[in-house]
Amino acid sequence: MTSAPEIPRSATDVLNRVFGYAAFRGEQREIIEHVIAGGDALVLMPTGGGKSLCYQIPALVRDGVAVVISPLIALMQDQVDALRTLGVRAGFLNSTQDLTERRRVEQAFVAGELDLLYVAPEGLGVPATQRLLDRGRIALFAIDEAHCVSQWGHDFRPDYLNLSMLHERWPDVPRIALTATATSATHGEIAERLDLTGARHFTASFDRPNIQYRIVAKNEPRRQLLDLLRTEHPGDAGIVYCLSRASVEKTAEFLVQNGIPALPYHAGLDARVRAANQSRFLREDGLVMVATIAFGMGIDKPDVRFVAHLDLPKSVEGYYQETGRAGRDGLPSTAWLAYGLQDVVQQRKMIETSEGDFAHRRNLAKHLDAMLALCETVQCRRGQLLAYFGQTGAAACGNCDTCLNPPESWDGTVPAQKLLSTVLRLQRERGQKFGAGQSIDILLGKTTEKVTQFRHHELSVFGIGTELREAEWRGVVRQLLAQGLLAVEGDYGTLVLTDESGSVLRKEHQVMLRREPERAARAPRARTGKAAPAADLPAEAAPVFERLRAWRAAAAKEAGVPAYVVFHDATLRQIATQRPGSLAELSTVNGVGQSKLDKFGEQVLAALQEV
Protein backbone atom coordinates (compact mmCIF):
# COMPACT_ATOMS: atom_id res chain seq x y z
CA MET A 1 0.00 0.00 0.00
CA THR A 2 1.50 3.33 -1.03
CA SER A 3 1.33 6.24 1.33
CA ALA A 4 -0.47 9.42 0.34
CA PRO A 5 1.81 12.00 -1.24
CA GLU A 6 3.19 14.63 1.07
CA ILE A 7 1.04 17.75 1.00
CA PRO A 8 3.14 20.86 0.38
CA ARG A 9 2.58 23.35 3.16
CA SER A 10 5.02 26.20 2.59
CA ALA A 11 4.42 28.93 0.04
CA THR A 12 7.63 28.04 -1.82
CA ASP A 13 6.70 24.35 -1.96
CA VAL A 14 3.31 25.22 -3.45
CA LEU A 15 4.92 27.56 -5.98
CA ASN A 16 7.40 24.88 -7.07
CA ARG A 17 5.33 21.71 -6.92
CA VAL A 18 1.86 22.92 -7.89
CA PHE A 19 2.55 25.83 -10.22
CA GLY A 20 5.98 24.78 -11.44
CA TYR A 21 7.80 28.08 -10.87
CA ALA A 22 11.23 28.33 -9.35
CA ALA A 23 10.95 31.74 -7.70
CA PHE A 24 8.50 34.46 -6.74
CA ARG A 25 8.33 37.72 -8.69
CA GLY A 26 8.38 41.20 -7.21
CA GLU A 27 6.36 41.47 -4.00
CA GLN A 28 4.55 38.15 -4.44
CA ARG A 29 6.34 36.44 -1.55
CA GLU A 30 5.68 39.31 0.87
CA ILE A 31 2.00 39.53 -0.10
CA ILE A 32 1.49 35.76 0.13
CA GLU A 33 3.20 35.42 3.51
CA HIS A 34 1.20 38.36 4.86
CA VAL A 35 -2.12 36.74 3.85
CA ILE A 36 -1.03 33.29 5.06
CA ALA A 37 -0.35 34.89 8.45
CA GLY A 38 -3.94 36.19 8.52
CA GLY A 39 -3.41 39.78 7.36
CA ASP A 40 -5.64 41.81 5.04
CA ALA A 41 -4.10 43.11 1.81
CA LEU A 42 -4.95 45.47 -1.04
CA VAL A 43 -2.85 44.60 -4.09
CA LEU A 44 -2.37 46.82 -7.14
CA MET A 45 -0.46 44.82 -9.74
CA PRO A 46 -0.50 44.98 -13.55
CA THR A 47 -2.15 42.34 -15.72
CA GLY A 48 0.30 39.50 -16.22
CA GLY A 49 2.09 40.36 -12.98
CA GLY A 50 1.00 37.22 -11.14
CA LYS A 51 -1.91 38.52 -9.04
CA SER A 52 -3.77 35.20 -8.95
CA LEU A 53 -0.90 33.45 -7.16
CA CYS A 54 -1.25 35.99 -4.36
CA TYR A 55 -4.49 34.31 -3.24
CA GLN A 56 -4.16 30.84 -4.82
CA ILE A 57 -1.02 29.96 -2.85
CA PRO A 58 -2.44 31.11 0.53
CA ALA A 59 -5.56 29.09 -0.35
CA LEU A 60 -3.42 25.95 -0.53
CA VAL A 61 -1.43 26.72 2.61
CA ARG A 62 -4.14 27.93 5.02
CA ASP A 63 -6.78 25.60 6.46
CA GLY A 64 -10.18 25.79 4.84
CA VAL A 65 -11.52 26.94 1.49
CA ALA A 66 -10.61 30.25 -0.19
CA VAL A 67 -13.70 32.08 -1.42
CA VAL A 68 -12.90 34.11 -4.54
CA ILE A 69 -15.35 36.87 -5.47
CA SER A 70 -15.19 37.42 -9.23
CA PRO A 71 -17.56 39.27 -11.60
CA LEU A 72 -16.53 37.02 -14.47
CA ILE A 73 -19.35 34.48 -14.58
CA ALA A 74 -18.65 33.60 -18.22
CA LEU A 75 -15.03 32.72 -17.38
CA MET A 76 -15.42 30.87 -14.07
CA GLN A 77 -15.47 27.47 -15.76
CA ASP A 78 -12.17 28.19 -17.54
CA GLN A 79 -10.60 29.47 -14.30
CA VAL A 80 -11.68 26.34 -12.45
CA ASP A 81 -10.51 24.06 -15.29
CA ALA A 82 -7.08 25.71 -15.22
CA LEU A 83 -6.75 25.07 -11.48
CA ARG A 84 -7.96 21.48 -11.78
CA THR A 85 -5.29 20.86 -14.44
CA LEU A 86 -2.78 21.88 -11.75
CA GLY A 87 -4.30 19.36 -9.34
CA VAL A 88 -6.07 22.04 -7.29
CA ARG A 89 -9.58 21.28 -6.04
CA ALA A 90 -11.68 24.17 -7.33
CA GLY A 91 -15.36 24.84 -7.93
CA PHE A 92 -17.75 27.71 -8.60
CA LEU A 93 -21.27 28.81 -7.82
CA ASN A 94 -23.14 31.07 -10.23
CA SER A 95 -26.41 31.51 -12.08
CA THR A 96 -25.38 29.27 -15.01
CA GLN A 97 -25.57 26.05 -12.95
CA ASP A 98 -28.51 23.72 -12.57
CA LEU A 99 -29.68 22.69 -9.12
CA THR A 100 -27.90 19.30 -9.15
CA GLU A 101 -24.53 20.80 -10.00
CA ARG A 102 -24.95 23.59 -7.47
CA ARG A 103 -25.75 21.13 -4.67
CA ARG A 104 -22.73 19.01 -5.56
CA VAL A 105 -20.43 22.03 -5.23
CA GLU A 106 -22.11 23.16 -2.00
CA GLN A 107 -21.62 19.70 -0.46
CA ALA A 108 -17.95 19.68 -1.48
CA PHE A 109 -17.48 23.10 0.14
CA VAL A 110 -19.09 22.10 3.43
CA ALA A 111 -17.09 18.85 3.52
CA GLY A 112 -13.83 20.77 3.01
CA GLU A 113 -13.21 19.01 -0.31
CA LEU A 114 -12.40 22.22 -2.16
CA ASP A 115 -9.35 24.47 -2.06
CA LEU A 116 -11.00 27.41 -3.86
CA LEU A 117 -14.63 28.35 -4.43
CA TYR A 118 -15.46 31.06 -6.99
CA VAL A 119 -18.66 33.07 -6.45
CA ALA A 120 -20.17 36.09 -8.17
CA PRO A 121 -20.57 39.29 -6.10
CA GLU A 122 -24.36 39.30 -6.56
CA GLY A 123 -24.45 35.76 -5.17
CA LEU A 124 -22.94 36.91 -1.88
CA GLY A 125 -25.93 39.16 -1.25
CA VAL A 126 -28.24 36.14 -1.18
CA PRO A 127 -28.93 34.93 2.41
CA ALA A 128 -28.75 31.28 1.31
CA THR A 129 -25.16 31.79 0.08
CA GLN A 130 -24.19 33.49 3.34
CA ARG A 131 -25.67 30.61 5.35
CA LEU A 132 -23.74 28.14 3.17
CA LEU A 133 -20.45 29.94 3.87
CA ASP A 134 -21.26 29.85 7.60
CA ARG A 135 -21.35 26.02 7.40
CA GLY A 136 -17.85 25.68 5.99
CA ARG A 137 -14.35 26.71 7.02
CA ILE A 138 -13.19 29.78 5.08
CA ALA A 139 -9.44 30.18 4.58
CA LEU A 140 -9.64 33.67 3.09
CA PHE A 141 -11.70 35.97 0.91
CA ALA A 142 -10.15 37.14 -2.37
CA ILE A 143 -11.89 40.06 -4.06
CA ASP A 144 -10.74 40.01 -7.68
CA GLU A 145 -11.14 43.00 -10.06
CA ALA A 146 -11.51 45.22 -6.98
CA HIS A 147 -11.65 48.41 -9.09
CA CYS A 148 -15.27 47.40 -9.84
CA VAL A 149 -16.17 48.95 -6.46
CA SER A 150 -15.16 52.44 -7.63
CA GLN A 151 -18.11 54.56 -8.74
CA TRP A 152 -15.67 56.96 -10.41
CA GLY A 153 -13.84 54.14 -12.16
CA HIS A 154 -14.21 52.66 -15.64
CA ASP A 155 -15.95 49.40 -14.72
CA PHE A 156 -18.27 50.04 -11.78
CA ARG A 157 -20.38 47.07 -10.58
CA PRO A 158 -23.02 47.97 -7.95
CA ASP A 159 -22.86 44.52 -6.28
CA TYR A 160 -19.29 45.28 -5.19
CA LEU A 161 -20.58 47.97 -2.83
CA ASN A 162 -21.97 45.24 -0.56
CA LEU A 163 -18.64 43.47 -0.07
CA SER A 164 -17.76 45.40 3.08
CA MET A 165 -20.16 42.91 4.74
CA LEU A 166 -17.45 40.23 4.46
CA HIS A 167 -15.50 41.75 7.32
CA GLU A 168 -18.64 42.43 9.35
CA ARG A 169 -19.94 38.86 9.10
CA TRP A 170 -16.60 36.99 9.13
CA PRO A 171 -14.24 39.34 11.02
CA ASP A 172 -11.52 36.72 11.56
CA VAL A 173 -11.14 35.72 7.91
CA PRO A 174 -8.33 37.55 6.05
CA ARG A 175 -9.24 39.42 2.87
CA ILE A 176 -7.15 40.24 -0.17
CA ALA A 177 -8.47 42.65 -2.80
CA LEU A 178 -6.70 42.77 -6.16
CA THR A 179 -6.82 45.02 -9.22
CA ALA A 180 -4.67 45.63 -12.27
CA THR A 181 -5.34 49.36 -12.33
CA ALA A 182 -6.03 52.21 -9.94
CA THR A 183 -5.09 55.84 -9.60
CA SER A 184 -4.46 57.10 -6.07
CA ALA A 185 -8.10 58.32 -5.93
CA THR A 186 -9.49 54.94 -7.04
CA HIS A 187 -7.07 53.19 -4.71
CA GLY A 188 -8.41 55.16 -1.77
CA GLU A 189 -12.01 54.51 -2.77
CA ILE A 190 -11.39 50.75 -2.98
CA ALA A 191 -9.89 50.74 0.52
CA GLU A 192 -12.76 52.76 1.96
CA ARG A 193 -15.63 50.92 0.30
CA LEU A 194 -14.25 47.46 1.05
CA ASP A 195 -13.33 48.44 4.62
CA LEU A 196 -9.64 47.80 3.90
CA THR A 197 -8.21 51.06 5.21
CA GLY A 198 -6.37 49.07 7.88
CA ALA A 199 -5.01 46.52 5.38
CA ARG A 200 -1.44 46.46 4.07
CA HIS A 201 -1.28 48.05 0.65
CA PHE A 202 1.04 46.65 -2.01
CA THR A 203 1.60 48.58 -5.24
CA ALA A 204 3.74 46.98 -7.92
CA SER A 205 5.17 48.87 -10.87
CA PHE A 206 2.56 49.45 -13.57
CA ASP A 207 5.20 49.28 -16.27
CA ARG A 208 4.67 46.59 -18.90
CA PRO A 209 8.03 46.86 -20.70
CA ASN A 210 7.15 44.24 -23.32
CA ILE A 211 4.19 46.32 -24.60
CA GLN A 212 4.96 48.90 -27.26
CA TYR A 213 2.52 51.85 -27.04
CA ARG A 214 1.67 53.54 -30.33
CA ILE A 215 -0.94 56.19 -31.15
CA VAL A 216 -1.45 57.21 -34.78
CA ALA A 217 -3.51 59.90 -36.50
CA LYS A 218 -6.68 58.44 -38.04
CA ASN A 219 -6.60 58.07 -41.80
CA GLU A 220 -8.98 55.30 -42.89
CA PRO A 221 -8.52 53.49 -39.57
CA ARG A 222 -9.72 50.06 -40.72
CA ARG A 223 -7.16 50.14 -43.53
CA GLN A 224 -4.52 51.24 -41.03
CA LEU A 225 -5.50 48.33 -38.76
CA LEU A 226 -5.34 45.88 -41.66
CA ASP A 227 -1.83 47.12 -42.51
CA LEU A 228 -0.76 46.62 -38.89
CA LEU A 229 -2.09 43.04 -38.79
CA ARG A 230 -0.67 42.05 -42.16
CA THR A 231 2.80 43.53 -41.70
CA GLU A 232 3.46 43.05 -37.99
CA HIS A 233 1.00 40.52 -36.63
CA PRO A 234 0.17 37.95 -39.32
CA GLY A 235 -1.48 34.94 -37.70
CA ASP A 236 -1.41 36.50 -34.23
CA ALA A 237 -4.24 36.56 -31.71
CA GLY A 238 -5.41 40.03 -30.75
CA ILE A 239 -8.25 42.26 -29.60
CA VAL A 240 -9.68 45.24 -31.49
CA TYR A 241 -11.81 47.65 -29.45
CA CYS A 242 -14.55 49.79 -31.02
CA LEU A 243 -16.91 52.24 -29.33
CA SER A 244 -20.20 51.11 -30.92
CA ARG A 245 -21.82 47.78 -31.66
CA ALA A 246 -22.27 48.77 -35.31
CA SER A 247 -18.55 49.53 -35.62
CA VAL A 248 -17.72 46.15 -34.06
CA GLU A 249 -19.85 44.33 -36.65
CA LYS A 250 -18.50 46.32 -39.61
CA THR A 251 -14.87 45.97 -38.50
CA ALA A 252 -15.12 42.22 -37.94
CA GLU A 253 -16.76 41.83 -41.36
CA PHE A 254 -14.05 44.01 -42.98
CA LEU A 255 -11.26 41.89 -41.47
CA VAL A 256 -12.86 38.61 -42.53
CA GLN A 257 -13.33 39.94 -46.08
CA ASN A 258 -9.61 40.72 -46.12
CA GLY A 259 -8.51 37.29 -44.95
CA ILE A 260 -8.14 37.94 -41.21
CA PRO A 261 -10.10 35.47 -39.02
CA ALA A 262 -12.16 37.74 -36.77
CA LEU A 263 -15.19 37.45 -34.47
CA PRO A 264 -17.53 40.14 -33.08
CA TYR A 265 -18.40 40.56 -29.39
CA HIS A 266 -20.81 43.09 -27.90
CA ALA A 267 -23.77 43.20 -25.51
CA GLY A 268 -26.30 43.25 -28.36
CA LEU A 269 -25.38 39.77 -29.55
CA ASP A 270 -27.32 36.72 -28.38
CA ALA A 271 -25.75 35.39 -25.17
CA ARG A 272 -25.03 32.02 -26.82
CA VAL A 273 -23.21 33.72 -29.71
CA ARG A 274 -21.14 35.79 -27.27
CA ALA A 275 -20.23 32.69 -25.26
CA ALA A 276 -19.33 30.73 -28.40
CA ASN A 277 -17.16 33.54 -29.79
CA GLN A 278 -15.38 34.00 -26.47
CA SER A 279 -14.77 30.26 -26.23
CA ARG A 280 -13.33 30.16 -29.75
CA PHE A 281 -11.04 33.11 -29.04
CA LEU A 282 -9.69 31.40 -25.92
CA ARG A 283 -9.32 27.97 -27.51
CA GLU A 284 -8.16 28.67 -31.07
CA ASP A 285 -4.86 30.18 -32.21
CA GLY A 286 -4.65 33.33 -34.29
CA LEU A 287 -8.19 34.68 -33.88
CA VAL A 288 -8.92 38.41 -33.67
CA MET A 289 -11.77 39.48 -31.37
CA VAL A 290 -13.44 42.74 -32.38
CA ALA A 291 -15.34 44.00 -29.36
CA THR A 292 -16.76 46.77 -27.26
CA ILE A 293 -15.28 47.15 -23.79
CA ALA A 294 -17.88 44.59 -22.63
CA PHE A 295 -15.18 42.06 -23.54
CA GLY A 296 -11.86 41.39 -21.90
CA MET A 297 -11.89 41.60 -18.12
CA GLY A 298 -10.45 38.37 -16.74
CA ILE A 299 -9.37 37.05 -20.14
CA ASP A 300 -6.35 34.94 -19.21
CA LYS A 301 -5.13 34.25 -22.76
CA PRO A 302 -1.38 34.83 -22.46
CA ASP A 303 -0.50 35.04 -26.17
CA VAL A 304 -2.58 38.08 -27.16
CA ARG A 305 0.02 39.82 -29.30
CA PHE A 306 -1.80 43.11 -29.92
CA VAL A 307 -4.62 45.26 -28.61
CA ALA A 308 -5.88 47.87 -31.06
CA HIS A 309 -8.32 50.72 -30.42
CA LEU A 310 -10.26 52.18 -33.35
CA ASP A 311 -11.93 54.72 -31.04
CA LEU A 312 -10.60 56.84 -28.21
CA PRO A 313 -10.94 55.23 -24.74
CA LYS A 314 -12.79 57.36 -22.17
CA SER A 315 -10.00 57.26 -19.57
CA VAL A 316 -6.37 56.36 -19.05
CA GLU A 317 -7.44 53.69 -16.54
CA GLY A 318 -9.68 52.07 -19.16
CA TYR A 319 -6.93 52.32 -21.78
CA TYR A 320 -4.37 50.77 -19.45
CA GLN A 321 -6.73 47.96 -18.44
CA GLU A 322 -7.58 47.17 -22.07
CA THR A 323 -4.03 47.37 -23.45
CA GLY A 324 -2.85 45.25 -20.52
CA ARG A 325 -4.58 42.24 -22.07
CA ALA A 326 -1.71 42.06 -24.55
CA GLY A 327 1.49 40.17 -23.80
CA ARG A 328 0.60 38.51 -20.50
CA ASP A 329 3.37 36.00 -21.27
CA GLY A 330 6.00 38.75 -21.25
CA LEU A 331 6.76 38.50 -24.97
CA PRO A 332 6.80 41.58 -27.27
CA SER A 333 3.31 42.93 -27.94
CA THR A 334 1.68 46.04 -29.40
CA ALA A 335 -0.85 48.51 -28.00
CA TRP A 336 -2.05 50.51 -31.03
CA LEU A 337 -4.60 53.34 -31.07
CA ALA A 338 -5.96 55.32 -34.04
CA TYR A 339 -7.08 58.75 -32.89
CA GLY A 340 -8.62 61.75 -34.67
CA LEU A 341 -10.60 64.95 -34.39
CA GLN A 342 -13.98 63.21 -34.46
CA ASP A 343 -12.98 61.14 -31.40
CA VAL A 344 -12.52 64.34 -29.38
CA VAL A 345 -15.77 65.87 -30.64
CA GLN A 346 -17.70 62.66 -29.94
CA GLN A 347 -16.32 62.16 -26.44
CA ARG A 348 -16.86 65.81 -25.46
CA LYS A 349 -20.43 65.61 -26.77
CA MET A 350 -21.09 62.37 -24.84
CA ILE A 351 -19.93 64.02 -21.63
CA GLU A 352 -22.09 67.10 -22.22
CA THR A 353 -25.21 64.97 -22.76
CA SER A 354 -24.46 62.30 -20.14
CA GLU A 355 -26.78 61.58 -17.24
CA GLY A 356 -25.59 62.60 -13.81
CA ASP A 357 -24.89 65.82 -11.99
CA PHE A 358 -22.22 68.46 -12.65
CA ALA A 359 -19.65 66.65 -10.47
CA HIS A 360 -20.11 63.47 -12.50
CA ARG A 361 -19.65 65.27 -15.81
CA ARG A 362 -16.64 67.12 -14.46
CA ASN A 363 -15.09 63.82 -13.43
CA LEU A 364 -15.72 62.35 -16.89
CA ALA A 365 -14.09 65.43 -18.43
CA LYS A 366 -11.06 65.05 -16.16
CA HIS A 367 -10.63 61.42 -17.24
CA LEU A 368 -10.93 62.42 -20.90
CA ASP A 369 -8.46 65.30 -20.49
CA ALA A 370 -5.84 62.88 -19.16
CA MET A 371 -6.47 60.51 -22.09
CA LEU A 372 -6.15 63.39 -24.57
CA ALA A 373 -2.92 64.52 -22.93
CA LEU A 374 -1.51 61.01 -23.42
CA CYS A 375 -2.49 61.11 -27.09
CA GLU A 376 -1.05 64.56 -27.72
CA THR A 377 2.19 64.30 -25.73
CA VAL A 378 5.56 64.78 -27.41
CA GLN A 379 7.21 63.08 -24.45
CA CYS A 380 7.63 59.33 -23.76
CA ARG A 381 4.15 57.76 -23.66
CA ARG A 382 5.16 55.09 -21.17
CA GLY A 383 6.52 57.74 -18.82
CA GLN A 384 3.27 59.72 -19.03
CA LEU A 385 1.21 56.57 -18.49
CA LEU A 386 3.21 55.65 -15.38
CA ALA A 387 3.01 59.23 -14.07
CA TYR A 388 -0.78 59.05 -14.30
CA PHE A 389 -0.67 56.18 -11.79
CA GLY A 390 1.73 58.09 -9.56
CA GLN A 391 4.84 56.19 -10.63
CA THR A 392 8.05 57.32 -12.28
CA GLY A 393 9.88 55.66 -15.12
CA ALA A 394 12.88 56.42 -17.27
CA ALA A 395 12.84 59.75 -19.12
CA ALA A 396 12.63 57.77 -22.36
CA CYS A 397 11.62 54.11 -22.51
CA GLY A 398 12.92 53.40 -26.02
CA ASN A 399 9.85 51.26 -26.80
CA CYS A 400 6.98 53.64 -27.61
CA ASP A 401 6.28 55.63 -30.76
CA THR A 402 7.37 58.98 -29.33
CA CYS A 403 10.72 57.48 -28.33
CA LEU A 404 11.24 55.54 -31.58
CA ASN A 405 10.04 58.33 -33.89
CA PRO A 406 9.93 61.58 -31.88
CA PRO A 407 7.32 64.13 -32.98
CA GLU A 408 8.07 67.84 -33.03
CA SER A 409 6.26 70.55 -31.14
CA TRP A 410 5.62 73.89 -32.86
CA ASP A 411 4.25 77.29 -31.97
CA GLY A 412 0.66 77.15 -33.14
CA THR A 413 -0.44 80.42 -31.52
CA VAL A 414 -1.20 82.23 -34.79
CA PRO A 415 -3.18 79.34 -36.37
CA ALA A 416 -5.04 78.97 -33.06
CA GLN A 417 -5.95 82.66 -33.13
CA LYS A 418 -7.17 82.37 -36.73
CA LEU A 419 -9.38 79.41 -35.90
CA LEU A 420 -10.79 80.93 -32.72
CA SER A 421 -11.44 84.20 -34.59
CA THR A 422 -13.42 82.26 -37.20
CA VAL A 423 -15.59 80.63 -34.53
CA LEU A 424 -16.02 84.03 -32.81
CA ARG A 425 -17.00 85.89 -36.01
CA LEU A 426 -19.49 83.21 -37.04
CA GLN A 427 -21.19 83.53 -33.69
CA ARG A 428 -20.91 87.29 -33.13
CA GLU A 429 -21.46 88.59 -36.66
CA ARG A 430 -23.87 85.95 -37.96
CA GLY A 431 -25.29 84.35 -34.81
CA GLN A 432 -24.22 80.98 -36.20
CA LYS A 433 -22.44 77.87 -34.91
CA PHE A 434 -20.84 75.25 -37.12
CA GLY A 435 -18.66 72.18 -36.78
CA ALA A 436 -14.96 71.97 -37.53
CA GLY A 437 -15.37 71.26 -41.25
CA GLN A 438 -17.07 74.60 -42.05
CA SER A 439 -14.54 76.64 -40.06
CA ILE A 440 -11.66 74.92 -41.88
CA ASP A 441 -13.30 75.50 -45.28
CA ILE A 442 -13.58 79.21 -44.44
CA LEU A 443 -9.93 79.43 -43.39
CA LEU A 444 -8.82 77.66 -46.57
CA GLY A 445 -10.97 79.94 -48.73
CA LYS A 446 -13.04 77.13 -50.20
CA THR A 447 -16.11 78.26 -52.14
CA THR A 448 -18.36 75.36 -51.20
CA GLU A 449 -22.14 75.24 -51.52
CA LYS A 450 -22.52 75.83 -47.79
CA VAL A 451 -19.99 78.70 -47.77
CA THR A 452 -21.93 80.39 -50.57
CA GLN A 453 -25.32 79.67 -48.99
CA PHE A 454 -24.36 81.40 -45.74
CA ARG A 455 -22.18 84.10 -47.46
CA HIS A 456 -19.18 83.03 -45.37
CA HIS A 457 -16.86 84.18 -48.17
CA GLU A 458 -17.72 87.71 -47.02
CA LEU A 459 -16.13 87.14 -43.61
CA SER A 460 -12.77 88.84 -43.00
CA VAL A 461 -11.25 85.47 -41.99
CA PHE A 462 -12.12 83.85 -45.34
CA GLY A 463 -8.97 82.43 -46.92
CA ILE A 464 -6.52 83.55 -44.21
CA GLY A 465 -5.40 79.98 -43.36
CA THR A 466 -3.87 78.68 -46.58
CA GLU A 467 -0.48 78.15 -44.92
CA LEU A 468 -1.79 74.85 -43.51
CA ARG A 469 -3.33 71.85 -45.26
CA GLU A 470 -6.81 70.60 -44.32
CA ALA A 471 -5.37 67.66 -42.35
CA GLU A 472 -3.13 70.07 -40.42
CA TRP A 473 -6.08 72.31 -39.59
CA ARG A 474 -7.97 69.29 -38.30
CA GLY A 475 -4.98 68.62 -36.05
CA VAL A 476 -5.14 72.22 -34.79
CA VAL A 477 -8.86 71.87 -33.98
CA ARG A 478 -8.27 68.51 -32.29
CA GLN A 479 -5.48 69.84 -30.11
CA LEU A 480 -7.35 73.02 -29.15
CA LEU A 481 -10.25 70.82 -28.07
CA ALA A 482 -7.82 68.60 -26.15
CA GLN A 483 -6.30 71.63 -24.39
CA GLY A 484 -9.70 73.09 -23.46
CA LEU A 485 -9.13 76.19 -25.63
CA LEU A 486 -12.15 75.22 -27.74
CA ALA A 487 -15.30 73.23 -26.96
CA VAL A 488 -18.15 71.44 -28.72
CA GLU A 489 -21.84 71.60 -27.91
CA GLY A 490 -25.14 70.19 -29.07
CA ASP A 491 -26.04 67.10 -31.07
CA TYR A 492 -24.12 68.32 -34.12
CA GLY A 493 -20.82 68.96 -32.32
CA THR A 494 -20.67 72.67 -33.17
CA LEU A 495 -17.57 74.59 -32.08
CA VAL A 496 -17.82 77.21 -29.32
CA LEU A 497 -15.26 79.26 -27.43
CA THR A 498 -14.31 78.55 -23.82
CA ASP A 499 -13.33 80.84 -20.96
CA GLU A 500 -9.69 80.18 -21.89
CA SER A 501 -10.12 81.11 -25.58
CA GLY A 502 -9.90 84.84 -24.86
CA SER A 503 -6.36 84.61 -23.51
CA VAL A 504 -5.23 83.17 -26.86
CA LEU A 505 -7.04 85.83 -28.88
CA ARG A 506 -5.53 88.55 -26.63
CA LYS A 507 -2.02 87.12 -27.27
CA GLU A 508 -1.61 86.27 -23.57
CA HIS A 509 -1.33 82.51 -24.12
CA GLN A 510 1.24 80.72 -26.29
CA VAL A 511 -0.24 77.59 -27.90
CA MET A 512 2.26 74.78 -28.47
CA LEU A 513 1.03 72.01 -30.75
CA ARG A 514 2.23 68.56 -31.75
CA ARG A 515 3.32 68.02 -35.35
CA GLU A 516 2.74 64.45 -36.45
CA PRO A 517 5.75 62.69 -38.04
CA GLU A 518 5.33 62.71 -41.83
CA ARG A 519 5.26 58.94 -41.87
CA ALA A 520 5.20 56.95 -38.67
CA ALA A 521 8.17 54.64 -38.64
CA ARG A 522 7.29 51.00 -38.29
CA ALA A 523 8.51 50.09 -34.87
CA PRO A 524 11.04 47.33 -34.30
CA ARG A 525 9.75 44.23 -32.57
CA ALA A 526 12.68 43.83 -30.21
CA ARG A 527 12.55 45.56 -26.86
CA THR A 528 15.63 47.46 -25.81
CA GLY A 529 16.60 48.37 -22.29
CA LYS A 530 15.57 46.89 -18.97
CA ALA A 531 13.48 43.80 -18.40
CA ALA A 532 13.66 42.56 -21.97
CA PRO A 533 11.24 39.70 -22.61
CA ALA A 534 12.34 36.28 -23.84
CA ALA A 535 14.33 36.55 -27.04
CA ASP A 536 13.16 34.99 -30.28
CA LEU A 537 13.72 31.26 -30.54
CA PRO A 538 16.99 29.96 -31.96
CA ALA A 539 16.48 28.65 -35.52
CA GLU A 540 16.93 25.02 -34.48
CA ALA A 541 14.26 25.35 -31.76
CA ALA A 542 11.53 26.81 -34.00
CA PRO A 543 10.34 23.47 -35.52
CA VAL A 544 10.40 21.90 -32.04
CA PHE A 545 8.22 24.73 -30.72
CA GLU A 546 5.72 24.27 -33.57
CA ARG A 547 5.56 20.50 -32.95
CA LEU A 548 4.89 21.18 -29.24
CA ARG A 549 2.15 23.66 -30.16
CA ALA A 550 0.50 21.05 -32.38
CA TRP A 551 0.65 18.49 -29.55
CA ARG A 552 -0.73 21.07 -27.09
CA ALA A 553 -3.66 21.88 -29.40
CA ALA A 554 -4.65 18.22 -29.55
CA ALA A 555 -4.24 17.74 -25.77
CA ALA A 556 -6.31 20.86 -25.04
CA LYS A 557 -9.08 19.77 -27.43
CA GLU A 558 -9.23 16.35 -25.80
CA ALA A 559 -9.45 17.93 -22.34
CA GLY A 560 -11.95 20.58 -23.48
CA VAL A 561 -9.82 23.48 -22.20
CA PRO A 562 -7.99 26.43 -23.80
CA ALA A 563 -4.48 25.61 -25.01
CA TYR A 564 -2.81 27.89 -22.45
CA VAL A 565 -4.36 25.84 -19.63
CA VAL A 566 -2.15 22.93 -20.75
CA PHE A 567 1.03 25.04 -21.06
CA HIS A 568 1.77 28.67 -21.88
CA ASP A 569 3.78 29.54 -24.98
CA ALA A 570 6.61 30.70 -22.71
CA THR A 571 6.82 27.19 -21.20
CA LEU A 572 6.82 25.55 -24.65
CA ARG A 573 9.54 27.94 -25.82
CA GLN A 574 11.72 26.92 -22.87
CA ILE A 575 11.07 23.22 -23.53
CA ALA A 576 11.87 23.68 -27.24
CA THR A 577 15.13 25.45 -26.40
CA GLN A 578 16.30 23.08 -23.62
CA ARG A 579 14.92 19.83 -25.12
CA PRO A 580 14.75 17.92 -21.80
CA GLY A 581 15.38 14.20 -22.16
CA SER A 582 13.72 12.97 -18.96
CA LEU A 583 10.85 13.77 -16.62
CA ALA A 584 13.36 15.03 -14.07
CA GLU A 585 14.77 17.52 -16.58
CA LEU A 586 11.29 18.52 -17.73
CA SER A 587 10.29 19.26 -14.13
CA THR A 588 12.86 22.08 -13.99
CA VAL A 589 11.07 24.07 -16.72
CA ASN A 590 9.03 27.08 -15.53
CA GLY A 591 5.32 26.26 -15.58
CA VAL A 592 5.72 22.48 -15.22
CA GLY A 593 4.33 21.58 -11.81
CA GLN A 594 3.85 18.08 -10.42
CA SER A 595 0.29 17.59 -11.67
CA LYS A 596 1.12 18.71 -15.22
CA LEU A 597 4.27 16.59 -15.17
CA ASP A 598 2.15 13.55 -14.24
CA LYS A 599 -0.55 14.35 -16.83
CA PHE A 600 1.52 15.49 -19.79
CA GLY A 601 5.19 14.70 -19.12
CA GLU A 602 5.46 11.49 -21.15
CA GLN A 603 3.48 13.04 -24.02
CA VAL A 604 5.85 16.03 -24.14
CA LEU A 605 8.92 13.79 -24.20
CA ALA A 606 7.34 11.70 -26.98
CA ALA A 607 6.61 14.85 -29.01
CA LEU A 608 10.24 15.92 -28.60
CA GLN A 609 11.38 12.57 -29.98
CA GLU A 610 9.40 13.20 -33.18
CA VAL A 611 11.35 16.29 -34.21
From TrEMBL:
- Reading the lineage from the top rank, the first entry is Bacteria
Which NCBIfam families does this UniProt record tie to the protein? recQ, recQ_fam
Q: Which protein are we looking at? A: DNA helicase RecQ
Q: Which residues form the Helicase C-terminal domain?
A: 221-372
Cofactor(s) needed for function:
Zn(2+); Mg(2+)
Which GO terms of the molecular function aspect are on file? 3'-5' DNA helicase activity; ATP binding; DNA binding; four-way junction helicase activity; hydrolase activity; metal ion binding
InterPro entries, alphabetically?
DEAD/DEAH_box_helicase_dom (IPR011545), DNA_helicase_ATP-dep_RecQ (IPR004589), DNA_helicase_ATP-dep_RecQ_bac (IPR006293), Helicase_ATP-bd (IPR014001), Helicase_C-like (IPR001650), HRDC-like_sf (IPR010997), HRDC_dom (IPR002121), HRDC_dom_sf (IPR044876)
Catalytic activity entry:
Couples ATP hydrolysis with the unwinding of duplex DNA by translocating in the 3'-5' direction
| SMART domains xrefs | DEXDc, HELICc, HRDC, RQC
In this chain the HRDC domain maps to 538-611
Q: What is its EC number?
A: 5.6.2.4
GO cellular component terms listed in the entry, alphabetical order: bacterial nucleoid; cytoplasm; replisome
